[in-house]
Amino acid sequence: MSVPRKKSVTAKDIAKACGISQATVSYVINNKEGKKISDATRRLVLKTAEELNYVPNSTARCMRTSRAMSIGVVSGRNSLSIGFNHVLRGIKAFLDHTGYSITLLYDDDANTDEQHEYVRYYRSSRIDGLLFLFYEMEDSTMEMLQREHIPFFLIDESGVWCSPEQRHTLLEDGITQAVRLCREKEFQRIRFFSLQVGEQLFSRKWDMFSQTLAQIYPEAEMKRLVFQRQGASTESLREQLYQAILHDDFDVAITPNPRMGGLLQGAILQKSFSLPMSIRHICIAASSMFQLVYPTITCLDMPLEEMGGYAARQIVRVLSDLPLEDHSFACVLKEGMSTR
Length: 340
Known about the structure:
It is elongated and about 75 Å long. It has 340 residues and is an alpha/beta fold. The protein is 41% helix and 17% strand. The longest helix has 17 residues, at 169-185. It has helices at residues 11-18, 22-29, 39-51, 58-65, 82-95, 117-123, 139-147, 169-185, 204-216, 234-246, 258-271, 304-319, and strands at 70-75, 101-105, 129-133, 152-156, 159-161, 189-196, 221-228, 252-255, 280-286, 298-301, 332-334. Strands 7-6-8-9-10-11 form a six-stranded mixed β-sheet, with helices on both faces. A five-stranded mixed β-sheet has the order 2-1-3-4-5, sandwiched between helices.
């Protein structure tokens, strides 16, 4: 039994229904910049395409453009948060209108930067560029991507960026608000909790937080507590955190990502489930998950979906040899029960 081939709606069908040229339809569907098309015509084409259930032929487009028509999305190891889904939704919403698909890639434990899965995908022309979500990228990795001429952007609490020279104003703003909250609440004994993988101990947030603390709240006393993640189960890591807070005396804990924030909050409540909490807690990460738990955790609030859409638009502009667009985002430290 042969399966009949499905009949697809084409740009020619849309042009006929709208009474315009096929070229105009193509410009609108492909979101071509620099073409003088009225808003009314653009709306008509998009509305007709939706009514006819038009889906771009990705195979034909790949052959025509000599591109994979797919953007690789690489999640960091701290992506187990609702924030990741918000950013991904913004990326997909924009790419759906451009004909690009998304290829989810794994942040594997490669021995060298060049052995990463996302590098192999780019070299084999399976993706055209990369978006890194909540990814702790070292300078050496960024230098490799630039050396390989791989188009990429990072989306995290720093904003949307692609160069170590860029100022991370969004994260700086959030960290400044966190330090000021510590000063306002008179949290003088501060502990910064970090995870280490093997020999690597890397955190821009630690550098930025310690520098900001020295400038704004120099009378505070801060220590950095480092825990090995490699080979440690969630239960053993939580026990390590519990033992650390059990034998230390401090006012507030600072965590740099949702995973560490969730684990530490559990350890704090294990020590003493009370309000106000025996140890206050600030997570300098953006995750709406923290507003769903009890007690709620003080964390950063950012327009993650908007940031995802902006990043997707910029990487498409790079692939189209168009200049990047300037855009600013707002960051607010949202206080929860963990610091009240």
